[in-house]
């Protein structure tokens, strides 16, 4: 029974390492970094991988924090929508924050 969180952590780590290394760590830090240093750009796969990794971690009893994962997921979807609508960098940053 104590191996369940370990398995969840391994699945989560594999997903992040293999598909979106920028999704590791605290989501709030990544969203702030994207806002200030990357023009509001977050790759489209990041919110999906972060969501799946969070499901694997939290669903198996691990700890992922309360606001970090959803902050990065929301920011990623905001950035994705802005890129599909071909918005300016300033507008992309606004959608990143709104996400």
SSE arrangement:
Blueprint: H1 3-19, H2 27-37, H3 45-59, H4 68-84, H5 89-98
Helix pairs in contact: 1-3, 2-4, 3-4, 4-5
Task: Give an account of the 3D structure.
There is one protein chain. This protein is mainly alpha-helical and 99 residues long. It has one domain (3-98). 71% of the residues lie in helices and 0% in strands. It has five helices and no strands. The protein has helices at 3-19, 27-37, 45-59, 68-84, 89-98. Helix 2 (27-37) packs parallel to helix 4 and helix 3 (45-59) packs antiparallel against helix 4. The longest helix has 17 residues, at 3-19. The chain is elongated, with a radius of gyration of 14 Å.
Secondary structure: helix percent:
over 70%
Number of helices in the DSSP assignment: 5
Number of E-state strands: 0
Rg over C-alpha atoms, rounded to the nearest angstrom:
14 Å
Structural class: mainly alpha
The total number of structural domains is: 1
**pLDDT < 50 stretches:** none
């Amino acid at each position: 029974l104590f191996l369940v969180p370990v398995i969840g952590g391994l699945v989560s780590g594999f997903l992040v390492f293999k598909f979106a290394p920028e999704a590791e760590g605290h989501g709030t830090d990544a969203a702030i970094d994207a806002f200030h240093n990357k023009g509001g750009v977050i790759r489209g796969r990041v919110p999906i991988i972060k969501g799946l990794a969070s499901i694997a971690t939290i669903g198996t009893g691990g700890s992922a924090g309360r606001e970090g994962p959803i902050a990065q997921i929301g920011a990623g979807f905001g950035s994705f929508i802005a890129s599909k609508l071909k918005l300016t960098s300033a507008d992309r940053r606004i959608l990143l924050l709104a996400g």
